[in-house]
Write a structure and sequence with these properties.
single chain; mainly beta; 1 helix; about 40% strand; globular
Length: about 130
């Protein structure tokens, strides 16, 4: 009887370890809207922080990203898609990635925070945005 209870315990441990959590449901429309760039960690390219609405990325329902800059704002040239007063770029999203104009980014979207990166652990960039009201 003791052996049977150990066997049941071992099996239940393996079953519990083998279970995976379901990935969170991703709604592609959650990215739609206006986002202000708040921080740009550019690895060797530097670190920049911005106030709300200085650099705005607006994701449209038509899969187009419109980037606008505050007039006269000088922007670090290493920040992608933010080097002109106005730019429009195609984008695609999935549950964990964002592709803008052919460039792939990892995507994290939680409440009013959007983070995209290109592997900052290996000297890639990371951009943080806050949702505009």
């Amino acid at each position: 009887m003791k052996k049977l209870s150990y066997l049941v315990l071992i099996c239940s441990v393996f079953l519990g370890v083998g279970c995976k959590k379901d990935p969170p449901f991703f709604d592609a429309n959650s990215i739609v809207g206006s986002w202000s760039l708040s921080e740009a960690n550019l690895s060797w390219g530097g670190y920049e922080s911005y106030e709300s609405n200085q650099i705005v990325w607006k994701f449209g329902t038509d899969q187009q990203l419109e980037v606008t800059l505050q007039e006269g704002l000088i922007v670090n040239q290493n920040i992608p898609f933010s080097n002109s007063q106005l730019g429009v770029y195609p984008y695609l999203t999935s549950d964990s990635t964002l592709t803008i104009n052919g460039q792939l980014f990892n995507l994290l979207l939680e409440n009013n925070l959007l983070i995209i990166d290109q592997n900052p652990a290996l000297d890639g960039i990371q951009l943080s945005f806050s949702k505009n009201e």
